[in-house]
Amino acid sequence: MSESYRQWETWGAQLVPLDFAHCSTEEAEKVLHRCSIIYLEGGNPSYLAYALKESGCVPLIRAIVKAGNILCFGSSAGSMVIGKSLWPAWFAKGRFAPRRGEASYEGLGFVGEVIVPHPTRGQERVIKALRPFDRRLRPLRDGEIYAVGERSYSAVPRRLRGSRPSQ
């Protein structure tokens, strides 16, 4: 079990891990309709996007999120997948490039920006340089949360780590 799962449990969350690569759409639908949060964990962003798309669950997740019945967010690769593109994965020197048969660099598009988790100084310079060309890049530094509301985007320092969220 990952550190993030243990953290959620300390906050009193009841977790139902769901491996999209190895479950049917029907199985996922039963689980997702009982949940209030979908949390996509880190790893390889190309594989995560591929597994979600191959499972056939993306339209289901989109519909549930759009209806406002559930929150969907992720950390690291999970946050990247929620964005419109995974192309910043090339910053990792091909480590996370799509393998033969896997999805392209297309994200799920739940948010209109391209999330760049754990940006290095060099990556931040590239992000800054690309802004005039209307690249919607959003650096997500360690310890930050990127919240998306109906009309608002914000990066908020995460100061509550290890504490229980307020009710």
Question: What attributes does this structure have?
Answer:
globular; alpha/beta; about 15% strand; two-stranded parallel sheet
Instruction: Determine the CATH superfamily.
Output: Class I glutamine amidotransferase (GATase) domain
What is the terminal-to-terminal distance?
26 Å
Percent range for helical residues?
25-40%
How many separate domains?
1
Structural class: alpha/beta
CATH architecture: 3-Layer(aba) Sandwich
Number of helices: 6
Succession of helices and strands: HHEHHEHEHEEE
Backbone shape: globular
- The CATH topology turns out to be Rossmann fold
Low-confidence stretches: 156-167
Over all CA atoms, what is the radius of gyration? 16 Å
- Overall residue-averaged pLDDT value: 75
Strand numbers in spatial order across the main sheet: 1-2
Number of strands: 6
Q: State the assembly state of the protein chains.
A: single chain
Report on the architecture of this protein.
This protein has helices at residues 3-10, 25-32, 45-55, 58-66, 77-82, 121-130, and strands at 37-40, 71-74, 114-117, 137-140, 144-148, 153-157. The chain has 167 residues and is an alpha/beta fold. It has one domain (3-157): 3-Layer(aba) Sandwich (Rossmann fold). The protein is globular, with a radius of gyration of 16 Å. The relative contact order is 0.13.
Helices, strands, pairings?
Layout: H1 3-10, H2 25-32, E1 37-40, H3 45-55, H4 58-66, E2 71-74, H5 77-82, E3 114-117, H6 121-130, E4 137-140, E5 144-148, E6 153-157
Parallel strand pairs: 1-2, 3-4
Antiparallel strand pairs: 5-6
